[in-house]
Design a protein that fits this description.
The chain has 3 helices and 23 strands. The protein has 354 residues and is mainly β. Strands 10, 12, 13, 14, 16, 18, 19, 22 and 23 form a 9-stranded mixed beta sheet that branches. A hairpin with a 5-residue loop joins β13 and β14.
Length: 354
């Protein structure tokens, strides 16, 4: 009986040892690190190079482990054509997916984790989608003179960028309004730009083009003279003092009927930043000699009252700087205002910075 009891104990010990060995040989646990269950769902982040488009996806299998604490090794297996890993043996490789000509792709991947002679495999998918609408940069608003060209070649082109589509479609649609009443431009064009990417997502933006009345009849419109002491107009930045801008009266434009508080000067390329004169003087100061905007006018008097707009040079320097104008560039300067009857007007001259 004693022999039988000893054998039974021995058998029990062997059984416990077998169970213990089995528990110590548990296979490793695989974690894919997906953001949608096991899978990854990511927005395109294409890098466009010479006609190709590649999205990069950061994978993370570092949550995989061996229950016994034994170090694990990794191997990522790609089952998708046109896709690859930067390092398939890394716990955190970058997965590159060729998206050329596609707005969405789904790829199967298997992660193999090995430890202590045991291997576990977990399959999952990477979904690359165009989940973001394209970005749109529209040209700045335009303030011009009635009769100026308003085609996009003159008023600016919009640009579009998409994280998935290398060339999102870009179109525009114009709505022209002829406002009625004092204080209104002669014409207002609302140009709606629309861009659409390959997944059908769209973005819109509106550019506003306003055209004010010219200062006078044909042949009498070039009646603005930036710094009448200089012809052609040369302006040196960084100097102290003031600079005068002359708004000449002509038979078809009574400068003495201008609302002085309404006068503003700005760069034709940057109408959103305007400058009011620090002082305005009304008297006969010169006469019209220019035929085209930018031509020289005359210092001889003609008996018609003009307006002398005086600006601080430091403020004019800021105006040019905000417009991105640099030394040596020739730029268009505009002055707009209202007559006392409410009618909006505008005129222009050209200036070269030195």
């Amino acid at each position: 009986m004693q022999t039988i009891r000893i054998c039974a104990v021995a058998v029990s010990l062997l059984a416990l040892q077998a169970v213990s060995l089995a528990q110590g040989n548990v296979p490793p646990v695989v974690s894919t690190g997906g953001n949608s269950g096991l899978d990854y769902r990511v927005d395109c982040n294409n890098t466009f190079v010479q006609g190709t488009a590649v999205t990069s996806v950061q994978l993370d299998g570092s949550g995989s482990f061996d229950p016994n604490g034994t170090p694990v090794t990794f191997f990522w297996h790609n089952e998708c054509t046109g896709a690859w890993f930067d390092d398939p043996t890394s716990p955190t490789p970058v997965y590159h997916v060729d998206m050329t000509g596609s707005c969405s792709r789904d790829c199967w991947i298997a992660l193999r984790v090995t430890s202590g002679g045991q291997t576990s495999i977990r399959g999952f998918q990477v979904f690359v989608e165009d989940a973001t609408a394209p970005s749109l940069t529209i040209p700045q608003n335009v303030v011009g003179i009635f009769g100026d060209p308003t085609a996009v070649g003159a008023t600016g082109f919009a640009t579009a960028f998409d994280n998935c589509d290398p060339a999102p479609a870009l179109v525009h649609d114009d709505v022209s309004v002829l406002p009625v009443g004092p204080g209104q431009p002669e014409e207002r064009i609302e140009r709606t730009w629309t861009t659409t990417d390959c997944s059908g997502r769209t973005t819109q933006g509106v550019q506003v083009i306003e055209l004010v009345a010219p200062t006078g009849d044909v042949g009498e419109r070039a009646n603005l003279d930036f710094d009448p002491q200089s012809c052609p107009n040369l302006y040196t930045t960084g100097s102290a003092g003031t600079v005068d801008v002359l708004l000449l009266g002509v038979p078809s434009f009574r400068a003495d009927r201008v609302d002085k508080l309404s006068l503003r000067m700005f760069l034709g390329s940057n109408p959103g930043v305007t400058l009011a004169p620090q002082a305005v003087f009304t008297r006969d100061l010169g006469s019209l000699g220019a035929v085209n905007y930018g031509d020289c006018n005359l210092t001889s008097l003609d008996g018609i009252k003009d307006q002398r707009l005086r600006f601080q040079k430091s403020a004019v320097d800021t105006l040019f700087a905000l417009g991105g104008v640099q030394s040596g560039q020739t730029v268009e300067v505009m002055v707009t205002g209202r007559l006392i009857n409410g009618k909006l007007f505008g005129t222009r001259d050209v200036v070269t910075l030195q």
